[in-house]
Write the structure tokens for this entry.
Amino acid sequence: MPAGSTRNIRWCSRHAPSSRRWGSSPARAAVPPPPPVSSTAAYPAWSSASPAGATSTKRTRRSRSNRSSRAWHSWSAFCWRSTEVVVIDIDNWLQSNTFHHSQFWDLKRLVEEKERQGLQISLCIPTLNEEKTIGKELVLFKSELMDRYPLLDEIAVIDSGSTDRTREVAAAFGTDVYLSSEILPEVGSKRGKGENLWKAIYQLKGDIIVYVDADIKNIHPRFAYGLVAPLIYRPEIKYVKAFYDRPLATSRGTRPLGGGRVTEILVRPLFSLFFPELTALVQPLSGEYAVRRELLERLSFPIGYGVETSHLIDTWTGWGLEALAQTDLDRRVHRNQPTRDLGKMAFGILRAFLARLRSHGIVPDLPELTPMLRQFQSRDEHYEQVIYEIREEERPPIIEIPAYRERRGLAD
């Protein structure tokens, strides 16, 4: 490809949804029903994410000394793992490990396969002052994915100390509600979403844990089943991320696209430079994902903004891109954050990212980083500086915590 040229590569993950959808547009034709599950391949053969003749992600290894002679092209990523170079065909991964939620419309069959494997699935909703939306989410998930289709074995709210009625509303709907500060009290309490996610691994019982944010205004069962289904049908997949269109609210109304600003301005360029395989993830910062416990318990957890980015880097490092997958959930509507808050988020993500560069030996001599972020805001015709201290503390893999090992019956 000539220098400076561009090429539109169209890989289709958005397939026709079933006509059986909760409150969604019937603009596309229905997906044909799947064939029965075979004993040799649980994943539906009708999934266009696994087209006929497709092969698994191609990987070849070359020495560092040959890297200067290689041509780069838009659909391959050349990545360094330890002292080896791994060449990944991104297009193959996008075809084999990218799904659309409508591929999993047959919830009866999904539940049957889950029960055949003897899996338990827990839904965790981390909260902080979400009284306006938490009730709707709980009603929907309980009615559709516990009562009607018993896909979820457990729904729990892990709260950071809400000052509104979030916990009262959640408890009124019969949901298990936990204060993060009261889980594993022997390790202390820290403030942040990552803390809730980490402590949920201890508190919940599922072999698969699916995390869903509490502020989704267009909540739908697909936000859970679309993420756990690839784990049920594909045993080699361990971590499934959501992606979707994200409308952006502006002073002139709502734009249909434009959300995910930190991803495109910060995270994607960083991944392109240091972890190009991970650029295959459409929305690496999405707050919805499902993970097998066997992987989750071995991940470190930044307690703040860096948890999603760090998870992807650590999963890629330990298990490879083939352990990751993503599901298109169509659209997600939630409150957009102001630019100043996005700046704090970006700062926290960058600190966690740079810490990974140091720990993985990519930039081993990185100096200690300041936790101070300086911003300016306009007040009465002058600017005032505001300084924030943002530290990305981390929790260790929870499998290293003695109380967790005892609770799970793991040998020392």
